[in-house]
Amino acid sequence: MKFLYILIIFFSFSLKIFACECNVPSTVEEFTTSDYVFEGIVVSKKYSKDYLTYKITFKILKHYKNGNNPKNLSFVLTSESRYTKNVTSCNWDVNINEKWLVYVNKSSDGELYFSKHCSNSQQINSPLYYSYQRWLDNVKKLKLDDFIYDNEFRTNFSVSYSPVDSIFKNGLKKEYDDKYIGLYLLIDKEGNLKSANMQNQLIPIYDSIYNLKKDIQIVPTIQISEFAKDAIELILNVKKWEIRRIPVSKIPISYIQFIGIYYEANEKKWKYELR
């Protein structure tokens, strides 16, 4: 036991250990921003002289984006921790004869790269889920601007929006039983605010193939607090919002923006947060 304890201490200090945290983008967003999306099998793996990196080559079995060429694509990846001495929760590797679904991007210097983490790229050990495979098989027919999005294709992550600031200065100053509400704003392709509703008022209607929102039904709410009523009335005065666009094509889309609205009774101020 003493020897094992010493061994653990040794490895703790000799290996660099890092944590890995990230959010995987939605399938539609990563597909749209990727340079290639393909299914392929690894036919070659060659290490560099210092064994710190290796080069893999995929034989492409099926292209989902960018036609039927090229027939092969190669990538340089960081070697396994036994060579680099870097241990992370993001450790992953690729080996000969493995089949992968790969979402490829291009760096600023033109190099192609992909990752298993923070990505929809994945090793295929068994057939993909039926719904996912159907999504990929029909993706060339996808018209992105036919749908309503949440946080996809978002470029403005600011927690403040000047038109809201100016409108909220005119908010009523009074005592409320409730002092917070979360609202979902439906904004059209031209940046016009169409409605502001609570989550339980929204019934999304999804497309059967792409599982994207093709419409939103709004259910009227009979009971609503005085604070909620005043908050909705305030936010409806902000007529124009950011026009959100699809990368590359710059085609505008409809989307839903969440806003948290609260009233600071001590300061007698309306405040908000965009998420």
Poorly predicted sequence stretches spanning 5 or more consecutive residues: 1-18
Distance between the termini: 51 Å
Mean pLDDT score? 89
Q: So how many helices?
A: 6
Portion in strands: 25-35%
> What is Rg?
25 Å
Largest sheet: 6 strands, antiparallel
Total strand count, please? Answer: 15
H/E element sequence: HEHEEEHEEEEHEHEEEEHEE
Structural class: alpha+beta
Gross geometry: elongated
Q: What is the helix content?
A: 10-25%
Structure write-up:
It is a single chain. The chain is an alpha+beta fold and about 280 residues long. It has helices at about 1-15, 25-35, 80-85, 130-135, 160-170, 225-235, and strands at about 15-20, 35-45, 55-65, 70-80, 85-90, 100-105, 110-115, 120-125, 150, 180-185, 195, 200-205, 215-220, 255-265, 270-275. About 20% of the residues lie in helices and about 35% in strands. Strands 2, 3, 4, 6, 7 and 8 form a six-stranded antiparallel sheet that branches. Strand 3 (about 55-65) and strand 4 (about 70-80) form a beta hairpin. The protein is elongated. The termini are far apart.
